[in-house]
Amino acid sequence: MPELSRQVASRTATVIGALALALNAAFYFLSSSYFDSHRLPGDIVDTTALGKARTAFAILSLVVGAAAFGASLAPKLVGHITAVVLGLGALVAGVEAYSSHLPAVMIAVLITVGVLLPTLAHFSWRGSRGAWSFLIAIIAVFGTVTFFGSPKVRNVLGVGFWSAMIIPAIQYVAMSALWMVRGDYPVA
């Protein structure tokens, strides 16, 4: 890695790390206030739930920070690999939704996206502007849907809210990484 690239990578890691630390510090103090304001009079703050929320937020910020750093170094690789992984995850979720007798629309959408994302990633990797733009659009839509659907995902999976937020955060990182390589796909 050339010296200039190392300096840029070092600065990028410093900015991402500092932002993650600042967000975690803010969350640490704000979560205390939130949990304190939502307790019944005479009750004590549920320190176990508070600790779980803080841990989940720390994991979220670590995962997103690492993915963002990877995307800053190799956006094309990270964007396409993440799209494939998201597609495979959607395919597995679609099969699980089928076996759990969830609504047919959900099953069809998950399986369709599970097939489309790796396929589009393949053609986008090979230089297809149409596949690249459709890939970004699908990831953006599903990132938005899962962002606003995180409370439902939390309840269905039985995980914490901040754990449920990891999925849309990774989708937004993938979308951003793919957007960073827009110069590789000139308008014909």
Structure summary:
The protein has 188 residues and is an all-alpha fold. The protein contains eight helices and no strands.
Description of the structure:
The protein is mainly α. The chain folds into 2 domains: 1-73, no CATH class; 75-188, no CATH class. Helix content is 83%, strand content 0%. The protein has helices at residues 3-37, 47-73, 75-99, 104-125, 129-148, 150-157, 161-164, 166-180. α2 (47-73) packs parallel to α8, α3 runs antiparallel to α8 (166-180) and α5 (129-148) packs antiparallel against α8. The two termini are 33 Å apart.
What is the number of helical segments per DSSP (H or I, 4+ residues)?
Answer: 8
How many E-type strands?
Answer: 0
Indicate the mean pLDDT: 89
Q: Could you estimate the helical fraction of the residues in percent?
A: over 70%
**Biggest β-sheet strands, sense, barrel:** none
What is the radius of gyration computed over CA atoms, rounded to a whole number of angstroms? 19 Å
Q: How would you name the oligomeric state of the polypeptide chains in this document?
A: single chain
Distance N to C terminus: 33 Å
Stretches where pLDDT is under 50 for at least 5 consecutive residues are none
Structural class: mainly alpha
Order of helices and strands: HHHHHHHH
Strand content: under 5%
Total separate domains: 2
Backbone shape: flat
Supply database-style keywords.
8 helices; single chain; 188 residues; 83% helix; 2 domains; mainly alpha
